[in-house]
Design brief:
By secondary structure, the protein is an alpha/beta fold. The protein has two domains: 145 residues, ATPase, nucleotide binding domain (Nucleotidyltransferase, domain 5, 2-Layer Sandwich); 154 residues, 2-Layer Sandwich (Nucleotidyltransferase, domain 5), CATH 3.30.420. Strand 2 and strand 3 form a beta hairpin. It is globular. The chain starts with a strand and ends in a 24-residue tail after the last helix. The structure holds adenosine-5'-triphosphate (ATP) and fe (ii) ion (FE2). The site of fe (ii) ion (FE2) has 5 residues, from helix 3.
Amino acid sequence: MICLGIESTAHTFGVGIVKDKQIIANSKDMFVTETGGMKPVDAMDHHVDCCKDVIKQALEEAKITMKDVDLISFSQSPGLGHCLRVGAVVARSLSKINNIPLIGINHCIAHLEIGKLLTGAKDPVLLYASGANTQIIAYEGGKYRIFGETLDQGVGNLLDSFARYMGLGFPGGPKIYELAKKGKFVEIPYCVKGMDVSFGGILTFLKQQYDKGVSKEDLSFSLQETVFAMLIEVSERAMAHCDKKELVLGGGVACNKRLQEMADKMCEGRNAKSFVPPNDVLVDNGAMIAWLGLLEYEAGVRTKDTSIKPYERTDDIEVCWC
Ligand code: ATP
Ligand code: FE2
């Protein structure tokens, strides 16, 4: 069975094609601003402009035509309404024109399931650390439950906002990683509240320290050491609470080698295993949407209401395919 998946929750318009358990295409186009943050309406225009080319590219990469596609899936939730709407309209149109069934997907669960597929992890805790989202998720009693999450912005937004403040441009994660290699530790706030984390105050503090003349290198190093320790602490407690022996990393921030190293070390210490899927499925991508589409469809899930759900939570979904 072949599924074409469409991702459009935020800055990336992606189209992935999965045949059985194999990714046969994963094309994307990312909206990047010259300066400042992203306006949803501009990202929407970007998606409208590039969607045709990205679909064409994916079909060429997979060496198939729309006639070979058995199922279309799309990111139905959560995300920016403007962006989600483009993916939904494209998916509905392709489905109608070609008479192919359509299924709506929760983007956060897609990150988790592609991680399981590509790493072989069976029943992991997922540390999902991306631009807009930061959640620690695990399967318990029929749902993927959120054991900890950010109380304000995602960890990636913290990295990107601070990188922009230091004049480093976007995306900030890789630049902060490079600078951190030459930095030393300075104390910054460590903000874990119960099982949740908070980054807003840390961003303000970092900006103040930068204005006072603390170096980019030292702030980058200390930022990584502190916020990644916060994420690993909560992940470890979720693993202990659920008695799980696997940790999977997901989301663009998981591309960071220092975070990967800290995850490895924590897992080693508790006789568990840490898994990291390849970078092109850590960041937003269509392949994970296609894969979850196949999983759900084969388990009998059918989407009657194809309207977008920008605020849907990971634990709103009944998981019947595990
Ligand atoms: P969401 O998944 O919540 O919709 P998003 O679309 O912003 O959010 P991703 O594409 O998964 O998220 O991740 C973007 C984040 O990952 C940014 O903060 C970026 O700086 C960071 N990032 C991307 N690549 C790397 C890398 N190679 N090393 C470190 N950080 C990275
Ligand atoms: Fe994502």
